[in-house]
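dude i think i finally got it to work??
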Amino acid sequence: MTLKEKVEEALSEVIDPGTKLDIMRMKLVRDLSIDEHGRVSLTFRPSSPVCPLAFKLAYDIKTAVQQTGGVKEVEVKVAGYNRADELMEVLKQAEKN
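look at this
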C-alpha cells in the first residue's frame, strides 16, 4: 500500500457527525498530494461556507493524517469557508502545542 493510499484510508475514517458519512465520500478533501519526503498537502472544503463543524472536521483531518505511518508533515488548506483564515491559524497553533 502506498503512502497516499494509507492517507486516503485514514481520511475515510473521519466521519462528518451531521451526515454520518466519511469526508472522502463527501468529497470534502481535494488536491491531496504527498511528496517523497512524507509531506502531505491537502485542501479541506467544508460542505457549506458556514459549516458549524468545520473546525472539528479540520482538526480531525489533520490528526488522522499526522497519525498515518510515514507522514512527516501535514499542511491543511481551507477553501470555500467564510472563516478559512481563522481556521488555518487555529490548525497552525494546534501544531505548536
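Strands lie at 15-16, 21-22, 29-34, 39-44, 73-78.
im so relieved honestly
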